[in-house]
Design a protein that fits this description.
Elements: H1 2-33, H2 39-55, H3 67-93, H4 97-119, E1 133-136, E2 141-144, H5 145-167, H6 169-179, H7 181-186, H8 191-216, H9 225-238, H10 243-263, H11 271-283
Antiparallel strand pairs: 1-2
Helix pairs in contact: 1-5, 1-6, 1-8, 1-9, 1-10, 2-3, 2-4, 2-8, 3-8, 5-6, 5-8, 6-8, 9-10, 9-11
Length: 296
C-alpha cells in the first residue's frame, strides 16, 4: 500500500506539471482577451509535429537537428503560429465571442485535417531529448526522463511567467489587462500589444507541452483531444482566467487521475475529474480562485 501511495505522489507530480503547462496557456488567452481558444489543443499538436519534422532526417532531406535544438525550434514555431492566429484572425473578430469561439474550433479541426493529410493517422516517432527512465526500486515504479524533464520545465516556465507578470512593466500590463481591460486602457496600456504577447506566450506553453506529450505518448492527429479536455476541466475548476487556480487545479486533477489509475483502474480515470467538475460548477461556479479580472 505504501509503495502505491508513493507511486501516486511521484507520478501525480510529473503528470500534473504537464497538465499545468497546457492549462496556463489556455487560461491566459481567456483571462486577457476573453477568448475561449479551442485551437490551443491544435497548437499542442503543432508543437509535437514540428518537433517530429525538425528531428527527422528522412523529412528534412538528410539534415539532422539535435533534439535540444529541435525542441527549441518546435516551441518557437508553435509560439509564432499562436501569434499569427491572433494577428491574422482573432484580432478582427474577438468582439464577437460566439464567432471567435467557433472560429477557434474550425482552426483546430483544420489543423487536424492538414496534419492527417500530410502525415496520416499512424503514430509518428520522435527522439526523446532525454531517453531512458529512472527506476525507483523502493517505490517499485519507473519514471521516464522526459516526464522528469517536463516537470522541471513546467516549474521553470511557470516561475519565469510569474516573474514576468509581477516584476516587469510589460508583464504587469498583461496582468492589469486581465484584471480590467478598460482600466488598463485608461492608463495607456497598448491592448493590441498585450494580447499579441499573451498569444505568443500561450503558444510557447503549448509548444513545450506538445513536445513533451509527443515524446511520451503517440504523436497522432488526435493527440490534442485529451490534453484540451483536461485543460478545460482544470481551468473551470481553478477559475477561468486564473493562473494560480490553473496550477492548483492541474495538481488536483493530476493526482486524482493517478490515484484512480493506481487504486481503481485505468478505465475509470476520467470519471472522478468529471464528478469534481460538476461539484465545482454547482458549489463554486467561478472556480476555486474565482475570476481575477473584469472586462467592461
Amino acid at each position: 500500500m505504501l509503495d502505491q501511495i508513493l507511486s501516486v505522489l511521484l507520478l501525480g507530480a510529473v503528470v500534473s506539471a504537464i497538465y499545468a503547462l497546457v492549462a496556463i496557456g489556455f487560461t491566459m488567452i481567456f483571462g486577457v482577451g476573453g477568448v475561449l481558444n479551442l485551437a490551443h489543443g491544435g497548437l499542442i499538436m503543432v508543437g509535437a509535429y514540428a518537433y517530429v519534422v525538425l528531428t527527422s532526417p528522412s523529412i528534412l532531406g538528410g539534415i539532422t537537428i539535435p533534439p535540444v535544438a529541435g525542441f527549441a525550434g518546435a516551441v518557437l514555431i508553435t509560439a509564432l503560429a499562436s501569434y499569427l492566429l491572433y494577428a491574422g484572425l482573432v484580432k478582427y473578430i474577438e468582439d464577437n465571442i460566439i464567432i471567435t469561439f467557433l472560429s477557434t474550433v474550425m482552426v483546430a479541426l483544420l489543423l487536424t485535417e492538414l496534419i492527417h493529410h500530410e502525415f496520416g493517422a499512424s503514430p509518428q516517432g520522435a527522439p526523446a531529448v532525454l531517453s531512458g527512465s529512472l527506476h525507483l526500486e523502493g517505490v517499485g515504479t519507473r519514471i521516464g526522463y522526459m516526464y522528469l524533464l517536463g516537470f522541471v520545465l513546467s516549474w521553470i516556465t511557470i516561475g519565469l511567467l510569474w516573474y514576468y507578470v509581477t516584476q516587469t512593466d510589460e508583464g504587469r500590463s498583461i496582468l492589469a489587462t486581465s484584471m480590467s481591460e478598460r482600466g488598463a486602457q485608461l492608463t495607456g496600456v497598448d491592448l493590441t500589444s498585450v494580447k499579441s504577447r499573451t498569444w505568443l506566450i500561450a503558444g510557447a506553453f503549448a509548444g513545450i507541452a506538445g513536445v513533451i506529450l509527443g515524446t511520451v505518448e503517440p504523436t497522432t492527429p488526435a493527440m490534442w483531444l485529451n490534453p484540451l479536455a483536461n485543460a478545460f476541466i482544470i481551468v473551470v475548476i481553478g477559475g477561468i482566467g486564473s493562473i494560480k487556480g490553473s496550477v492548483v487545479a492541474a495538481y488536483l486533477i493530476g493526482y486524482l487521475q493517478q490515484f484512480t489509475i493506481e487504486f481503481v483502474g485505468q478505465g475509470y480515470v476520467g470519471i472522478p475529474s468529471l464528478i469534481v467538475l460538476v461539484a465545482v460548477l454547482l458549489l463554486l461556479p467561478e472556480g476555486l480562485y474565482g475570476r481575477e479580472f473584469a472586462h467592461e
